[in-house]
Specification:
The chain is an alpha/beta fold and 246 residues long. It contains six helices and twelve strands. The longest helix is centred in the middle third of the chain and has 14 residues. The mean pLDDT is 88.
């Protein structure tokens, strides 16, 4: 089955996700930031295909999109996944099921539940279609080079772009994953700069106001983005009479 597994990684040289992919290692490419990172990763994983991309998760996501051809199926995984819950299937079998479903669908982006609690993920149908926010840790998509990302909330941004283009994305309910973000590497540099997150949130709310809402959590500096269950048409701007109303 033709698909690619892309793992962007930065300063996480063990890349724990690789330990789960023995049966599909021929499809894996690890994307690193520069030559120095490439050397350090190769010292630990000499048999893994690696490509020097760009630093920063948004830049690296765009690099991966531009690296592959249009319409190729890309399985994107972060480097800190500790396990999959996939109904007693092997990871290889699970990925083949997901890729087969996506390849036969008119839609182009598949997301997975943001919680590893199987109780909350039980559904009558294994796959549903609708407005979902994809979590960047694990998602699958048909490549489209015209979709480029511009904020550090790149996973939400990709979701909105595919919903806007296709009308919906797929949620696969019979697969969960466990991961624990590590203190070093990855998105740490973005999280250390609150202005990046605030600017990205404002940009997203403005750019996708027909799809997104936001709310504040207690003890959080940042607004939490939520997807609308249904999109709505933006109201037309009505030009007021040219008169002094005050």
């Amino acid at each position: 089955m033709n698909y690619h597994i892309a793992i962007p990684s930065y300063q996480r040289y063990e890349c724990i996700t690789l330990s789960l992919l023995d049966d599909v290692m021929d499809k894996v490419t690890v994307f690193v930031a520069n030559q120095d990172e490439y050397t350090k990763y190769k010292e630990r994983h000499s048999n893994i295909k690696m490509v020097i991309g760009e630093k920063g998760i948004m830049n690296q996501r765009n690099f991966i999109t531009n690296y592959y051809d249009n319409n190729e199926i890309i399985v994107c995984m972060d480097d800190d996944i500790k396990g999959f819950l996939c109904q007693e299937r092997s990871v290889k079998h699970m990925l083949e099921d997901c890729v087969t479903y996506l390849s036969q669908s008119k839609l182009s982006l598949m997301s997975f539940p943001p919680t590893s609690n199987e109780f909350y993920n039980k559904r009558e149908n294994s796959y549903t279609e609708g407005n979902y926010l994809t979590v960047g840790v694990f998602h699958i998509y048909k490549n489209d080079k015209s979709i480029q990302l511009y904020t550090c909330l790149e996973d939400y941004e990709r979701s909105c772009e595919y919903i806007r283009r296709d009308g919906a994305i797929i949620r696969c309910w019979n697969v969960c994953y466990k991961h624990k973000p590590l203190a070093k590497g990855g998105l740490t540099e973005y999280r250390k700069n609150p202005n990046s997150t605030i600017n990205a949130t404002n940009t997203m709310i403005y750019k996708y106001s027909d799809m997104l809402i936001f709310k504040y959590r207690v003890n959080s500096l940042f607004a939490q983005i939520r997807i609308r269950l249904k999109t709505y048409d933006k109201p037309k701007v009505i030009k007021l009479p040219n008169t002094n109303m005050f």
